Q: What sequence folds into this?
């Protein structure tokens, strides 16, 4: 669960929460998509799970 959001500087923020293997599988699935060829840099940070998300959503603004 989590969100994806376009930022004003042109970057994209993605927050994903779940078991580590699930998050890694999710990232692998994203990396396998044709659109991923437009990604120039990827920063990955692991944080403690907060359980604040109950679904995955697209955020605006």
A:
């Amino acid at each position: 669960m989590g969100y994806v959001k376009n930022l004003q500087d042109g970057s994209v923020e993605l927050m994903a929460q779940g078991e580590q293997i699930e998050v890694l599988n999710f990232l692998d699935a994203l990396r396998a998509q044709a659109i991923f060829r437009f990604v120039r840099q990827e920063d990955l940070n692991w944080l403690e799970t907060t359980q604040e998300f109950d679904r995955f959503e697209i955020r605006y603004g």
User: Anything to note?
Assistant: Residues 21 and 39 are 22 Å apart (CA to CA).
